[in-house]
Amino acid sequence: MENGAVYRSTTEAHPGPARGARSGLAAYFTLRRLKRTRLILKLLQLVLSLLAFICEEVVSQCTLCGGLYFFEFVSCSAFLLSLLMLIVYCIPVYDKVDPAKVKSSDFYITVGTGLVFLVASIFFSLTHDSTTAELAAIVFGFLASFVFLSDFFIMVYEKRKEPRPRKPEATVSEPLNA
Question: What is the pLDDT of residue 165?
Answer without folding.
Answer: 73
